[in-house]
């Protein structure tokens, strides 16, 4: 991947682009009035653009660039600040001080909400197999300004890792996290949002496996949570108790792992 600046940039943006390239061992290229398409072709590689207004990546495989934005999580975050309910927080029963492992980070929307719910005393780790999404989201979480200190702090507290979740789960000890969370690609299209359409070509689409679920049950001290389309067969296939939400096509499934045996 090549790192460059936007067409118009200042010294701060230039230094940030150089810093990202250095930290990830990537090549930095001065923009020199070249278009992103020209840079794609010149270097035969994906291009990360560090602009004055944020971060984006132009993959060779896509016609559109992928821009970092926390999307609907900002609306959800502001609702949490007003002590309103959030479906994920309720399904996972997240409380201050808990630990949460997001196995499918994407652009990090659910991780941000989880981080707000568990607070500074808690821990949120987010995994992403796609290097493009990992780099974009990790850097976006570290620099995006939500104009709210609590939301910004929640974003900065997330630990993002570039790794396959099944591989990572196997390295963890029993009961390492309170909640393990899966949000795999839906089998049925559920959103027409531009952000989801844009990231689809760069998303790894591993199918949730029996092995991953069994490892998650071992690692989760409290519960394993699955977010999926309400018609998904994965709830029944892997033994999740589907939480019915009559007003939404998105449902959550729960496997409780702290069941006491008499």
TrEMBL record:
Q: Which key words are in the record?
A: Methyltransferase, Transferase
Q: Which GO terms describe its molecular function?
A: rRNA (guanine-N2-)-methyltransferase activity
Gene3D superfamilies, alphabetized: Vaccinia Virus protein VP39 (3.40.50.150)
Indicate what this protein is called per its UniProt record: Ribosomal RNA small subunit methyltransferase J
Organism equals Jeotgalicoccus saudimassiliensis
